[in-house]
Amino acid sequence: MAEEIQLSVGDKKAQYESLIPQIKALISGEPNLVANLANVSAALKAQFDFLWVGFYLVDKEELVLGPFQGPIACTRIKKGNGVCGAAWARNEAIVVPDVDAFPGHIACSSLSRSEIVVPFYSSGEVTGVLDIDSASLNTFDELDIHYLTSIVNLFSS
Ligand code: SME
Fold first, then answer.
1. Is the CB of 111 inside a 6 Å radius of any atom of ligand 1?
2. Nearest residue by C-alpha to atom 5 in ligand 1
3. Which of 41, 106, 127, 142 could be bridged to 82 by S-S, CB 3.0 to 4.6 A?
């Protein structure tokens, strides 16, 4: 395993293209999900300096906070609640350009201005979500959905 992530200074696409092979190398050979989610959070935070990067994991009818990087966060989110619970209930990635315009958004940090949530699966069922908060409006788009989906697919089956 590499000891550190080589950060890219290119555009967003170049940053993902550089980071993803490193993430694959980082998690290859390690079967423990929590360890891998922790390192993926750290790698994404290091490359993009997002406000908050982390995972929520399905536990019965709730999402429970998993490995993350950033300010402390709410620990439990019910299915359908907030952006995370909505992505779980809808079975799809959600981009929120302005969190104040998303009905039911859960503000773990008052600094968060935009957000993306991407679910991942086991045997077709959502087992967790990747959640990223940005301190700027309009940070995320289809490109992020594309690359972040390819990252969470590393944990899907
Ligand atoms: N904003 C999220 C809650 C989780 S925090 O952003 C870390 C939501 O509305 O589900």
1. no
2. 108
3. 106
What are the DSSP E strand ranges found in 44-110? 52-59, 62-69, 76-78, 94-96
Q: Tens digits of per-residue pLDDT, 7-35?
A: 999 999 999 999 999 999 999 989 999 99
Structure tokens at 62: 């709730």
At the topology level of CATH, where does 12-153 sit? Beta-Lactamase (3.30.450)
Question: Domain spans of the chain?
Answer: 12-153
**pTM of the predicted model as reported, rounded to 2 decimal places:** 0.96
Tell me how far apart the alpha carbons of residues 132 and 68 are, in angstroms, rounded to a whole number. 10
pLDDT digits (tens, 9 = 90+) for 32-90: 999 999 999 999 999 999 999 999 999 999 999 999 999 999 999 999 999 999 999 99
Give the mutation target among 65, 83, 112 for probing the ligand 1 site: most ligand atoms within 8 A of CB: 83
55 contacts 44 by C-beta, under 8 angstroms: no
Which H or E run includes 105? Answer: none
